[in-house]
Amino acid sequence: MPGPSRKTAQLTARMLELHAGGASAREIGEALKLNHHTIVKWLGDAGLEPNGGHGTRRDRRRPTPAGTAAALVDVQKALADLADAPAPTDHAGVLARLRKDFGLVSALVEFHIDGARKGTSSMAELDKAIAIQDRFASRLAELAPRDPPDPASDPANLEAAAEVRRRLAALVEAAERVFKCKACGRNPHGK
């Protein structure tokens, strides 16, 4: 069951005054502290069409951010640009982009740490930023090229070298057993 109407003669007069001045339904709603859908309905009851305000919604004037919001705008734009850039297709390109993105996320974490000290950022925001930074760090660790193992300390390499030495020794022994001198026809190794 709907509640009582908030429509009064004073609100209607103020709405009509703002409408005549070119205000949009949203602007009238903000001024009267009412939902803009209510204003559209009331304007329809008065036989009027809502004004378009300042053009299309994306072209309307926006309040310029200040304080913490202003500092976040640059970081948010940089993060939004990440989605707009074409994804690299080669491993080196992916790794370079990931390192660049990790730098941006690290700056966001530093921003929230500084904001937490000043009381302008919440711990929840800082926790989210750290979680994003951790995901980037683990992805970087997965994709970063590994240093080749040191052959002198690589256990698999030492075992392989020992096997090659055993095979070479067996080949030498076999060759010494069948070897015969061309001059005398005897085996000089005494085997």
Number of strands: 0
- Low-pLDDT sequence parts: none
Terminal CA distance = 113 Å
User: What fraction strand?
Assistant: under 5%
Overall outline: rod-shaped
Profile the largest sheet. Answer: none
What class, by secondary structure content?
mainly alpha
Could you give the order of the helices and strands? HHHHHHH
Rg from alpha-carbon coordinates: 39 Å
Instruction: Tell me the number of helical segments per DSSP (H or I, 4 or more residues long).
Output: 7
What is the average of the pLDDT values?
Answer: 79
Helix content: 55-70%
Summarize the structure in words:
The radius of gyration is 39 Å and the shape is rod-shaped. The protein is an all-alpha fold and 191 residues long. It is built from seven helices and no strands.
Give the SSE layout.
Layout: H1 9-20, H2 25-32, H3 36-45, H4 68-84, H5 91-118, H6 123-143, H7 155-178
Helix pairs in contact: 2-3, 4-5, 5-6
Question: Main attributes?
Answer:
191 residues; mainly alpha; 63% helix; 0% strand; rod-shaped
Short structural description:
By secondary structure, the chain is an all-alpha fold. The protein has helices at 9-20, 25-32, 36-45, 68-84, 91-118, 123-143, 155-178.
